């Protein structure tokens, strides 16, 4: 090889892309050729300059500024547009297969459930505000998991221990009977119906959100040494509201109540790593009891499939990770993992499963596995399980990087899931940094 | 793996573009994070000032977000974004020109203030002068932190072409920097 040819190899050499033989040959040549060595030094100097400049530019915090501008402008457009959907031309995912719709709906059951085993104490200074929470027979509310701007909105009609739940990002209707640990899932477009068992480990500690808040408030009443912080006044949906913040061990509960009637209008619950927002709350409004009936409505066909959410395992959750990376992100794990992310993912991944070249039976099984995987993830926080997600930037199949780890209750070690979806038991001191 | 004809990078872009279109503006965050340094470098060279580049980069991202429904191939988000940034830069330059002309009329006796230059303006200016194909590769390598393999995937070219393009781009950058240096010190 002559000098020109060696020079042609320099970039590949720097990038570590040469074969062993080429590398040795080039290194040998560099020892004896000042011109090529100088060329290499100059390229490296330029590279240093580029790397430094890149670092400086990467430090700019334009991410938050851009997001703020988008949200602000979006809100303006939403207010001025007749219909939000048409102005932003937002598409909605339409799932074609009925069975997939039902399976995806079964997956979303998780959001009906907030497991509670411990709560906190407080004072009675906001007794007036909590009265409706304690005594209401019916409650109607909107409920968002995660960010108000991006999380799907659920509309709940709560009647005693029964809930009728509808969604902003899916057509599905859920009727949940907490006393009997049973759920009726309805799919209006296909007139499909299915019963889902939510008995077993899920039953214990399963509450509707108002009951969750109610229990919290009862504890507060019983332990008057726990301080309730007053947050002052704020305008919410055009009404003057007063706020109270109660800090618990794992939970922060903020209640905003109408300043004149003392009726709660907005409740924010930060539980573990998840924020639940309850808004547009109305207490003791007349509710037609047939709305929460567990009977299959006229015109619907009951599926013979048995959807069962009682048993859920780590393996189900691993399937969720695999499907997400493989079918939604071209082999990359998602940047973040939260309940909100999973809920947003549901319609899309349901659609993906619908397109897979497998039998309907297999699709149904996959849909159910997905649902159980969601439940597995959802119950970690409420059960006080320490978990951590680190999948951002990791490729599916990469055995060297940990994606997710958690410490099962009572276990001295952590279960660590790697990029190739293998699992190891590691002591806390051996966990990835 | 399905979709073998498209790179993982491009598929990830596509996923986040679709998420935004489905009404999840917060997911735009990932696209901003991925391309902010690339866009800043691209604009800094054209506008000659880090603050102006930041302003233009913000504007480009916001425009991209609200025009996302006109992006026919979501997996080509990167090239599309650079196109938007070019337009924004042109508008900024035009406005700047008008402002300067007005200012010159008002106070032509005063000396124009020195523009506040970013850390390595010479380098950014040299990058801005590179032909499109070379600039794209340099931006991805040093401002997008992509490996050569990833660039090959993203731009759909053989790995050998990536290293050759880089090699050529280095030579052009060095020439251009040398020229700027000479102009500064020999006049």
Can you offer a commentary on this structure?
The complex is a heterodimer of chains A (433) and B (187). Chain A has 433 residues and is α+β, with helices and mostly antiparallel strands. Chain A folds into three domains: 3-58, Arc Repressor Mutant, subunit A (Orthogonal Bundle); 98-302, outer membrane lipoprotein receptor (LolB), chain A (Clam), CATH 2.50.20.10; 311-430, no CATH class. Chain A is built from eleven helices and 19 strands. Chain A has helices at residues 3-14, 20-32, 34-58, 62-80, 84-88, 98-107, 127-135, 209-222, 314-328, 339-355, 360-378; strands at residues 114-115, 138-145, 153-159, 162-167, 173-177, 182-187, 192-197, 206-207, 228-236, 239-247, 251-258, 264-271, 274-283, 301-302, 307-308, 387-389, 402-406, 414-418, 423-426. In chain A, helix 6 runs parallel beside helix 11 (360-378). Chain A starts with a helix and ends in a 7-residue tail after the last strand. Residues 81-104 and 106-125 of chain A have low confidence and may be disordered. Chain B has 187 residues and is mostly helical. Chain B has a single domain (8-186), classed as RNA polymerase sigma factor, region 2, helix turn helix motif (Rna Polymerase Sigma Factor, Chain: A). Chain B contains eight helices and no strands. Chain B has helices spanning 8-21, 28-47, 50-66, 77-106, 121-129, 132-143, 148-155, 159-186. In chain B, helix 6 crosses helix 8 (159-186). The longest helix of chain B has 30 residues, at 77-106. The radius of gyration of chain B is 19 Å and the shape is flat. The termini of chain B are far apart. Mean pLDDT of chain B is 80; it is low at 1-5 and 108-118.
Q: Based on the structure given, which CATH architecture of the largest domain in chain A is correct? A: Clam
Rounded to the nearest angstrom, the distance between the terminal CA atoms of chain B is 59 Å
Q: Could you please say which CATH topology of chain B applies here?
A: Rna Polymerase Sigma Factor, Chain: A
Average pLDDT of chain A, rounded to a whole number, is: 76
Query: Which CATH-level-2 architecture of chain B?
Result: Orthogonal Bundle
Share of residues in strands of chain B: under 5%
How many helices of chain B does DSSP assign? 8
Poorly predicted ranges of chain A: 81-104, 106-125
Model regions low in confidence, pLDDT < 50 over at least 5 residues of chain B: 1-5, 108-118
Number of domains of chain B: 1
CATH fold name of the largest domain in chain A: outer membrane lipoprotein receptor (LolB), chain A
Rg of chain A, Cα atoms, Å: 27 Å
CATH-defined superfamily of chain B: RNA polymerase sigma factor, region 2, helix turn helix motif
* Helical residues, percent of chain A: 25-40%
> Helical stretch count of chain A?
11
Indicate the multimeric state.
Answer: heterodimer
Report the mean per-residue pLDDT of chain B as an integer: 80
The CATH superfamily of the largest domain in chain A turns out to be Lipoprotein localisation LolA/LolB/LppX
Count of the separate structural domains of chain A: 3
């Amino acid at each position: 090889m002559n000098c020109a040819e060696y020079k042609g190899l320099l970039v590949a050499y720097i990038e570590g892309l040469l074969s062993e033989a080429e590398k040795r040959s080039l290194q040998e040549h560099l020892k004896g050729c000042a011109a090529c060595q100088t060329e290499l030094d100059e390229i490296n100097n330029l590279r240093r300059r580029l790397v430094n400049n890149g670092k400086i530019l990467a430090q700019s915090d334009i991410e938050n500024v851009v997001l703020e501008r988008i949200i602000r402008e979006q809100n303006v457009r939403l207010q001025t547009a007749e219909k939000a959907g048409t102005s932003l031309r937002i598409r909605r995912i339409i799932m074609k297969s009925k069975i997939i719709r039902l399976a995806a709906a079964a997956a979303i059951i998780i959001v009906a459930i907030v497991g509670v085993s411990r709560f906190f104490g407080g004072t009675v200074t906001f007794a007036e505000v909590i009265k409706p929470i304690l005594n209401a027979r019916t409650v109607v509310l909107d409920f968002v998991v995660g960010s108000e701007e991006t999380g799907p909105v659920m509309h709940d009609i709560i009647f005693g221990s029964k809930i009728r739940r509808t969604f902003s990002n899916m057509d599905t209707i859920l009727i949940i009977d907490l006393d009997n640990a049973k759920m009726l899932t309805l799919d209006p477009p296909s007139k499909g119906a299915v019963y889902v068992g939510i008995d077993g480990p899920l039953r214990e500690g399963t509450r509707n959100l108002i009951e969750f808040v109610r229990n919290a408030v009862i504890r507060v009443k019983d332990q008057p040494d726990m301080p309730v912080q007053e947050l002052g006044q704020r305008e919410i949906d055009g009404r003057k509201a007063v706020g109270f913040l109660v800090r618990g061990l794992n939970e922060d509960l903020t209640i905003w109540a109408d300043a004149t009637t003392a009726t709660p209008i907005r409740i924010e619950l930060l539980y573990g790593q998840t924020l639940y927002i309850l808004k547009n709350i109305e207490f003791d409004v007349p509710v037609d009891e047939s709305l929460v009936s567990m009977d299959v409505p006229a015109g619907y066909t009951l599926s013979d499939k048995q959807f069962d959410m009682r048993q859920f395992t780590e393996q189900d959750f691993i399937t969720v990770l695999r499907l997400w990376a493989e079918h939604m992100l071209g082999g990359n794990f998602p940047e973040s993992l939260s309940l909100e992310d999973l809920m947003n993912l549901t319609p899309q991944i349901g659609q993906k499963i619908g397109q897979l070249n497998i039998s309907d039976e297999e699709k149904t099984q996959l849909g159910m596995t997905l649902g159980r995987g969601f439940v597995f993830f959802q119950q970690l926080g409420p059960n006080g399980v320490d978990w951590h997600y680190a999948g951002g930037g990791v490729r599916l199949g990469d055995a060297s990087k940990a994606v997710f780890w958690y410490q099962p209750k009572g276990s001295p070690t952590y279960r660590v899931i790697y990029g190739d979806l293998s699992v190891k038991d590691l002591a806390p001191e051996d966990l990835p940094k | 793996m399905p979709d073998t004809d498209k790179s993982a990078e491009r598929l990830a872009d596509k996923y986040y573009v679709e998420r935004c279109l489905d009404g999840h503006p917060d997911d735009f965050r990932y696209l901003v994070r991925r391309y902010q340094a690339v866009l800043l470098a691209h604009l800094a060279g054209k506008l000659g000032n880090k603050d102006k580049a930041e302003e233009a980069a913000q504007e480009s991202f916001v425009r991209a977000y609200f025009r996302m429904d006109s992006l026919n191939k979501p997996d080509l988000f990167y090239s599309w974004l650079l196109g938007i940034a070019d337009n924004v830069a042109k508008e900024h330059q035009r406005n700047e020109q008008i402002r300067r002309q007005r200012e010159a009329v008002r106070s032509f006796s005063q000396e124009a203030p020195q523009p506040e230059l970013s850390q390595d303006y010479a380098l950014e200016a040299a990058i801005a002068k590179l032909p499109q194909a070379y600039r794209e590769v340099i931006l991805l390598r040093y401002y997008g932190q992509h490996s050569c393999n990833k660039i090959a995937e993203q731009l759909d070219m053989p790995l050998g072409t990536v290293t050759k393009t880089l090699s050529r781009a280095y030579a052009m950058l060095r020439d251009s920097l040398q020229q700027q240096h000479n102009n500064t010190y020999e006049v």
